Amino acid sequence: MSEIGTDGLGALPLRSVDAPAAPPGCRDRLVERARLQWWPTDGGDPATLAEEFLSAHGIDLRDVSRPAVHDPDGVCGAALYLSAAAGARAAGGSPGVPTPVPTVPDLVVVVYGHADRPATPPADRVPGGWWLGDWRDSWTPDAHAGAVAAVRAAIGRGDVYQVNLVGHAAAPYTGDPLPALARLAALPGARYGGTLAGPGWALGCASPETLIALERGRLVTRPIKGTRAATDTGRRELLASAKERAEHIMIVDLERNDLARVARTGSVRVDELFAVRRWCDLWQAESTVSAAPADGLGLAALLRAVCPGGSVTGAPKLAALDRIAALEPVGRGASMGALGWVGDGRIDLGLTIRTAAADAERLHLWAGGGITWGSDPAAEVAEAAAKAAPVRALLTAG
């Protein structure tokens, strides 16, 4: 675990902060004050460590039910990233196979304060020519289809009801990866578009999905399940699909259960069910589930309740995590976790789908989908490819 305080960062130049969900009105005058980076080998509970680190640096989220006011002159908030493996560990589930990007920490908390002057626009990066090589998938289409069949067999035995399977691909690169990763925020529907970086690693996100947010005093999650091509025919097919609706409602029920564990009794409700929205060239079905936080609910307990997200695990969640660990050949790395912004009275974390990571040599990308008894293996392989295609295209662009 590494922890860097204010003294170690005071000399850094002011740059506009690109963290997903950072307050738009503050981005051009934020300066990094402290940073926590954690890997599982460091030991401890990542959710507790995040809450304690934030509290020690002026962001008190030990009771998110308590109203709080943003201080425009003090600590603004923090970028927070939690990997799927760390979320599984905090929830008591299997973390899965090892990550293909071990340089990326499994927990990152970056605390920002307000500077007394606006940040200067970042200087143009030293031109060196951006080149991205061919993507190499960690499993073949046949292997992916075989994993889908294995999940269907597990459903047939009654072991699980639904499992989300995720594939991984990597491509070598030369040049600076940050401009390429930053371009992902421009993808249509990227509600959590932005980047986060550290020594030897960087993340770029184009996620449309809210894992957990605190909005007007209520906890909100917006699970996405169900995908079709963004055509008139695709929209009609999605709305008419019994398979997609059943898969979606199963995850809505899971999210209701997750929130109920940390909510005021009787306050959980479904505000919107199976709304069809667009992300790039795809229609996707999204619901909104909300609840009033229980008195005394802290960030650590909230993260343990909702991570990893139900839409990228399955139901029951812990049984699905066991199946994922047995079937996926490569760890989920930077994907299927949480990334966003937290502050006094504010939580806004996206689910890291449509997310890429860079180490010193390669870009890494993940994509997948939920498997039910009604899933067709070939269609599931095609759906994962369709989700990855816009991200691959934008990363390739020079």
Task: Give an overview in words.
- This protein has 398 residues and is α+β, with helices and mostly antiparallel strands.
- The protein has a single domain, classed as Anthranilate synthase, CATH 3.60.120.
- 28% of the residues lie in helices and 31% in strands.
- It has helices spanning 6-9, 46-56, 84-91, 141-157, 177-182, 232-240, 242-260, 299-306, 317-327, 377-396; strands at residues 2-4, 30-38, 75-82, 107-114, 131-132, 136-137, 162-174, 192-198, 201-207, 210-215, 218-221, 224-229, 269-279, 282-291, 314-315, 338-343, 346-351, 355-358, 362-371.
- Strands 1, 2, 3, 4, 10, 11, 12, 13, 14, 16 and 17 form an 11-stranded antiparallel beta sheet that branches. Strands 5, 6, 7, 8, 9, 15, 18 and 19 form an 8-stranded antiparallel beta sheet that branches.
- β16 and β17 form a beta hairpin.
- The longest helix has 20 residues, at 377-396.
- The radius of gyration is 20 Å and the shape is globular.
- It starts with a strand and ends with a helix.
- Residues 6-15 have low confidence and may be disordered.
